[in-house]
Specification:
It is a single chain. This protein is mainly α. The chain has 13 helices and no strands. It has helices at 11-22, 28-32, 35-55, 58-81, 87-100, 103-106, 114-129, 147-160, 168-186, 192-215, 220-240, 245-250, 253-266. Helix 3 packs antiparallel against helix 4 and helix 11 crosses helix 13 (253-266).
């Protein structure tokens, strides 16, 4: 039977724990996992890490960073079992990449600021891609990214291809135009085509909103997470102002609106 390491605050202990989890006397669930089955957990843990960072709670952030690290090492362990690579190959790969992409730190390249750094970074990435299989699309963006975040990155790509608005006010005008088109779709007679049209126009509204966030130098996925948290907090505050959820549900709409404004003022 595997024994838990006596010291739990070093890297070797984590490697051993994950190896034991996958071993003959390990965890049935962990032993069944594959790279593909674990992929959704990696995405989920990354989102939870981002939320922990935004919360400003250091203990929570420490925990969620650990969960992400667990995913990384678990994938490396699976690869080692296939004789593909191990965690030290992963470390060497990222170390090499970071050194290569920071010649202004580890070589004699001169930069005048962050803008030069990003230009060099993009140029180095282009050189790296020459040695890889060409992408089948101009938009080499992970399919698993949340849709708003993907829209943001699509805009970043088209900006590089010189297809973009020049001012936020232009994007606001586009967003208003898309909302107007959505309103027109809502006026159509009920039919399967109407619902499809509504979805099409709703998507255009969300896409334009993501581009507006980009032009305002904010990240739409993060903005929406914050809006979700703010709404939940205000809603829960609103409910707390009544005796129970049932009492709140029974209120007329105008009373609920009054409670909402009170909750907004307090939160």
């Amino acid at each position: 039977m595997p024994q838990a390491p006596k010291t739990l605050n070093n890297f070797e202990a984590l490697l051993q724990i994950i190896k034991d989890l996958r071993g003959p006397d390990g965890c049935p669930w962990d032993k069944e996992q594959t790279h593909k089955s674990l992929a959704p957990y990696a995405i989920e843990e990354t989102h939870e890490m981002a939320e922990a960072i935004e919360s400003g709670d250091d203990a929570h952030m420490c925990e969620e960073l650990g969960d992400v690290l667990f995913q990384v090492i678990l994938h490396a362990q699976l690869a080692k079992e296939r004789n593909a690579f191990d965690i030290f190959d992963v470390i060497e790969s990222i170390n090499s990449k970071i050194v290569r992409r920071h010649p202004h730190v580890f070589s004699d390249t001169k930069v005048s600021g962050a803008e030069d750094v990003m230009k060099n970074w993009d140029e180095i990435k282009k050189q790296e891609k020459k040695n890889k299989k060409p992408s089948s699309t101009l938009f080499d963006i992970p399919k698993s990214l949340p849709a708003l975040q993907k829209s943001h990155k699509i805009g970043e790509k088209t900006e590089k291809y010189k297809f973009d608005w020049s001012e936020p006010t232009q994007v606001i005008a586009q967003l208003k135009a898309e909302i107007t088109e959505l309103e027109e779709a809502l006026k159509e007679q009920n039919s399967p085509q109407k619902q499809q049209h509504i979805r099409h126009e709703m998507g255009d509204v969300l896409f334009s909103a993501a581009q507006l966030a980009r032009h305002l130098n904010t990240e739409p996925e993060s903005d929406l997470r914050e809006a979700n948290r703010r709404f939940i907090s205000r809603f829960e505050k609103m409910i707390s102002l009544k005796n129970s959820l049932e009492d709140f549900i029974a209120l007329p709409a105008n009373e609920k609106e009054k409670l909402w404004h009170v909750a907004k003022q307090q939160n």
